């Protein structure tokens, strides 16, 4: 089925001007960028986005990092987009990420891992709605 997924290009990647190289990986994989904006999150906004991780030991560090520089939030659309995006990103920890994936090529650590992608249809819907209105999604 054609799906949409929420993607975030994280501060470590925007700081290193990797937005274009990362977008090329998405587009080469057949993912269409149907919405995109560069924004500066506050720590509180990052915390709300990552609320499911509130009890994790890395939560505070994660929120600080996500608010440390601009991020690019985007909606990717395509056949099986959620799984396809996760394939293109590679494993959360770059040490475990397959060759050619975004995290293998660009990520600096498990925390500063260049990209986020929704993990399931339900979370994709919630995460897309957190950043975009229907009017901003241009398939
Ligand atoms: P992401 O897919 O954005 O979802 C939650 C994030 O938490 C994850 O990517 C990592 O960047 C981050 N994370 C996971 N494990 C750790 C960790 N051990 N230390 C710091 N950050 C982590």
TrEMBL record:
PANTHER family reported for this sequence: NUCLEOSIDE DIPHOSPHATE KINASE, NUCLEOSIDE DIPHOSPHATE KINASE DDB_G0292928-RELATED
NCBIfam families on file: PRK00668.1
Protein name (database record): Nucleoside diphosphate kinase
GO CC terms: cytoplasm
Active-site residues, Swiss-Prot/TrEMBL: 116
Cell location: Cytoplasm
InterPro entries: NDK-like_dom, NDK-like_dom_sf, Nucleoside_diP_kinase, Nucleoside_diP_kinase_AS
Assembly mode: Homotetramer.
CDD domains found in the cross-reference section: NDPk_I
The protein's Enzyme Commission number: 2.7.4.6
Cofactor: Mg(2+)
Nucleoside diphosphate kinase-like domain: residues covered: 2-139
Gene Ontology MF terms: ATP binding; metal ion binding; nucleoside diphosphate kinase activity
Family per record: Belongs to the NDK family.
Residues holding ATP: 10, 58, 86, 92, 103, 113
Enzyme class, UniProt record, top EC level: transferase
Signal peptide: none
Function of the protein: Major role in the synthesis of nucleoside triphosphates other than ATP. The ATP gamma phosphate is transferred to the NDP beta phosphate via a ping-pong mechanism, using a phosphorylated active-site intermediate.
Organism: Roseovarius pacificus
HAMAP family listed in its UniProt record: NDP_kinase
Pfam family of the protein (one): NDK
Family annotation (SUPFAM superfamilies): Nucleoside diphosphate kinase, NDK (SSF54919)
